[in-house]
């Protein structure tokens, strides 16, 4: 079995830290936009965004602090993990409404 066909378990573990917020089924507070899901997005797109936030070139609140400790090769592995996942299905407005206590969570 070649190295490229084996799952990258370390990248998966790093990616799981992202999923508490960047998840289609993550709870959303009324009036707050859902954070973008990461699954199925192109590696290059994810890398550009992650590097820009880490390096302070793209405004963000929490992400610059979270990304500060990752090298480019580690970010590449995380991006590749997400790119290889099936694109997440966003919940419908009624599903968001029921999960937010009856308040529509869409912006």
Hey, roughly how much beta strand do the residues contain?
A: under 5%
**Largest sheet, described in full?**
none
Class computed from helices, strands and strand pairing: mainly alpha
The amount of helix comes to 40-55%
Task: Quickly count the helices.
Answer: 5
Please, what is the average pLDDT?
A: 79
Overall geometry: globular
- SSE pattern: HHHHH
> What's the total number of strands?
0
Rg is: 15 Å
Low-confidence stretches: 93-107
In whole angstroms, the N-to-C terminal distance is 47 Å
Question: How does this model look, in words?
Answer:
It is built from five helices and no strands. The protein has helices at 9-18, 43-54, 63-67, 72-84, 93-99. The longest helix is centred in the C-terminal third of the chain and has 13 residues, at 72-84. The chain is globular, with a radius of gyration of 15 Å. Residues 93-107 have low confidence and may be disordered.
Summarize this entry quickly:
This protein is mainly alpha-helical and 107 residues long. The chain contains five helices and no strands.
């Amino acid at each position: 079995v070649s190295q490229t066909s084996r799952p990258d378990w370390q990248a998966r573990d790093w990616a799981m830290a992202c999923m508490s917020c960047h998840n289609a089924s993550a709870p959303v507070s009324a009036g707050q936009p859902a954070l973008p899901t990461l699954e199925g997005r192109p590696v290059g797109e994810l890398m550009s965004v992650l590097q820009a936030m880490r390096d302070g070139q793209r405004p963000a609140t929490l992400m610059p602090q979270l990304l500060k400790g990752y090298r480019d090769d580690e970010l590449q592995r995380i991006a590749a993990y997400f790119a290889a996942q099936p694109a997440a299905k966003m919940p419908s407005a009624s599903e968001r409404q029921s999960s937010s206590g009856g308040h529509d969570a869409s912006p």
